[in-house]
Amino acid sequence: MGARRMITRSQGGRHQAGIALMEALVAILIFSFGVLGLIALEASAVNFAVDSEDRNRAALFASEIASSMWTAGSVSVTNAQLAPQVVTWQANISNPTTTGLNNGTLTITPVAGTTNAADIVITWKPPARATSSASTLTTRVILP
User: Fold this and answer.
1) Which DSSP category does 28 fall into?
2) Domain map of the chain by residue range?
3) Cα dihedral sign for 16, 21, 27, 33?
4) More confidently predicted of 58 and 102
5) Over the Cα atoms of the chain, what is R_g?
6) Can you give the pLDDT at residue 41?
7) Single pTM value for the model
């Protein structure tokens, strides 16, 4: 028969010890980055939802103001029928504790050269965006 072969363990096997632990740690690291990404995505979605809610609220205010202008038949804020409502609108828009907007302001400006058109500008700045610019909604009302 032939010579007996001696089977020896190669030195490479000793370097493989603990590789499963390293694979598990890398998998946990990748999973953690994925979870952090989902948390950031949710925070961004919440900010977009708040911005959308504020824009919707501003549009409702502008619609109410335009409706009152149509009812009064005038776009002049000095009109006896509109003047008291303008004060109420300004108070409501700037009051965030009720249905208003944070740091909200209302400006009604007649369009130059016409007597039957005005621009309604509502501006607000949410406290979460203290360093960025304010949001603005502009609506033009043209009476027949």
Assistant:
1) H
2) 12-142
3) negative
4) 58
5) 33
6) 94
7) 0.68
Query: How much is the pLDDT for 129?
Result: 63
**What percentage of the chain reaches a pLDDT higher than 90?**
24
The model's pLDDT over 92-121, given as tens digits with 9 standing for 90+, comes to: 777 766 667 877 888 888 888 888 899 999
Residue type at 35 in one-letter notation:
V
Q: Return the SS3 of 142.
A: strand
CA–CA distance, 144 with 141 (Å, rounded to integer): 10
Tokens linked to 131 = 């360093």
Q: Which residues of 117-126 are buried (b: 16+ CB within 10 A; e: fewer)?
A: ebebbbbbbb
Under 8 Å between Cβ of 55 and 136: no
SS percent in the chain: helix, strand, coil, step 5: 50, 15, 35
In whole angstroms, give the CA distance from residue 49 to residue 30.
29
